[in-house]
Amino acid sequence: MEEIKLSFSPDTPPLSVIAALSLSSSPVTIDSSSSSTTVPTFLFSDGRKLTGASVLLRHVGRSTNSLPGFYGHDAFQSSQIDEWVDYASVFSSGSEFENACTRVDNYLQSVTFLVGRSLSIADVAVWSALAGSGPRWESLRKSKKYQNLVRWFNSISLEYAEPLNKVMAYTVKKSSGKPVSATAPRSKDQPQAVRAEHDKGKPEVDLPGAEVGKVKLRFAPEPSGYLHIGHAKAALLNKYFAERYQGEVIIRFDDTNPAKESNEFVENLVKDIGTLGIKYERVTYTSDYFPELMSMAEKLMREGKAYVDDTPREQMQKERMDGIDSKCRNHTVEENLNLWQEMIKGSERGLQCCVRGKLDMQDPNKAMRDPVYYRCNPMSHHRIGDKYKIYPTYDFACPFVDSIEGITHALRSSEYHDRNAQYYKVLEDMGLRRVEIYEFSRLNLVYTLLSKRKLLWFVQQGLVGGWDDPRFPTVQGIVRRGLKIEALIQFILEQGASKNLNLMEWDKLWSINKKIVDPVCPRHTAVIEERRVLLTLTDGPDEPFVRLIPKHKKFEGAGEKATTFTKSIWIEGADASAISVNEEVTLMDWGNAIVKEVTKDENGRVTALSGVLNLQGSVKTTKLKLTWLPETNELVKLVLTDFDYLITKKKLEEDDEVATFVNPYTKKETLALGDSNMRNLQRGDVIQLERKGYYRCDVPFVKSSKPIVLFSIPDGRQHQPLAH
């Protein structure tokens, strides 16, 4: 291997180059003692030289093999990376530093990395420029000014803490003379999940025996329901490993059970996979291989490695539990093949039979006790109709198709751990190439059903509006509730491929989501219709006037909204009840007012207020900051919808009867009025209603008589059950 030495002046260390070398574990000798070297230089053993930090950084990016995509996955990404590497120098210009922070902060609103889906030298260049700026960046980092940029910086600092802390030894805080720490500060604003990962270290997420460029993975859902958050973890881990190892992902529909499957599920699974941003080489179906699977089953029968069994199902299950051989286990090859033909025809005799693998009925692992390979099923298949009367089981078809399709690593959740030995034994009996299984923990969430059978029950009982119901843990359901896919990806990748089984709180996921939507979503105003109170400002404008104000005071990209100012304004009934006579209050986006009169009915409920403006008053001195709406006919009708968990038990066990734990009150609708700007909302838009929370528009404005429907988005605070 060619020897390379990095030489530079100790006063001007090329942090980006040192970081790239450390991250890629490149075997380069570092010499920082050369005061004669003013420009960072690579000295090659044959006398050649490369000079200049950006040149050296690009060389490391091109030459490393340990970090896929470090210099992009294609020519376009490489060109994007070049742009960022060149731009990073702007951070060294004192006058342009905050402008550069603003630009990158805006760019990072909806992406995790600067280019593509993985770390590149673009990230290294900008990260190093910020880290090397010392106290200036440290002070901004602790503020809330550049939330996207800080999130990105801290995320990289956490993910690559060890190599980056080595880098920071080369720079010193001017004020204290102590090395700057690359590790992200554990602030109260940082997601709890991130802090936990910081404490315990990142989990290992390497694939055993994986080679860059040779990894082939598959995501193989059964088309018997919509994609849910548990499937999403498997899908996104496949995507992650494919990108990391420059491999590929196949989408395969495991369509071996016609009783549960349909084209509707296939179409929506494809849609959901697209929503997750998963790029795949092709779509295949297990049913594509039915002829080959039948031939393999027959081959195993001829070799004495499988047999046809007509033992009744309950008796068969008992014999498997007790380790008792079936009376059919020693059938002759001819007897097996005759019964096999009856199964193929779907005859009355065939319907009594199944094919079982002849493994080991005394194995302590019950998954090895002659599993079923084939069953008779006369139902029509959603894709191939009535061509077959027999269908392979998952245990038989999965290892076969994995091997035939060239899959190198099969990712599956640890709930299948006991069946791993069976998987390998089936491949061995078939005489096929071995496929490595890689386990990860199933994603379990509190008060959440991830069983498609139980989810289907809710749909069939009419307890939800469909598979995309916002109370459902399906991808379509949680997106409709207001979850950003970027939040889901971050949530899952923060867990890595951990094998630890744990019950996760939804709060962590919604906290991440809030950090994504809050910096950019427009602000609007709503007043609950019931018991709203009119506040008349006696010195208010005689004629209404309109003023344009920002929809988001810290994000110009949210645009502006037209706010109408009138003599009489609507406020919340609860706010009106809290106001005392002669109390000064703040009307948000207007100024202060002093309430002079409070009118109540015979029950003591406030029915009207009267007051005067005091626009010179200090906002800091008032206790109540009130949202309000003008008294005009331009206001829009709203339905504010809140949701609760579908079940009342934190974790349902497999044998729990779901009907016993159904939550009877999971949806609450509140009528409200909203500002006129909400007429422009589109379905899927996320907004914040001042003092109420975040909402996603599910039904936009159509006409004045039809309300806009907004779904409440959890913000990560502790869940509170719906109040009747």
Automatic annotation (TrEMBL):
Keywords (A to Z) from UniProt: Aminoacyl-tRNA synthetase, ATP-binding, Cytoplasm, Ligase, Nucleotide-binding, Protein biosynthesis
Domain annotation Glutathione S-transferase C-terminal: ranges: 102-156
Enzymatic class: ligase
Annotated ranges, domain tRNA synthetases class I (E and Q) anti-codon binding: 625-698
EC number of the protein: 6.1.1.17
Gene Ontology BP terms: post-embryonic development; reproductive structure development; translation
Record-stated family: Belongs to the class-I aminoacyl-tRNA synthetase family. Glutamate--tRNA ligase type 2 subfamily.
Predominant location: cytoplasm
Cellular component GO terms, alphabetical: cytoplasm; protein-containing complex
Compartment list: Cytoplasm
Residue span of region Disordered: 177-207
Species in which this protein is naturally found: Eruca vesicaria subsp. sativa (Garden rocket)
Name of the featured protein: glutamate--tRNA ligase
Glutamyl/glutaminyl-tRNA synthetase class Ib catalytic domain segment(s): 214-517
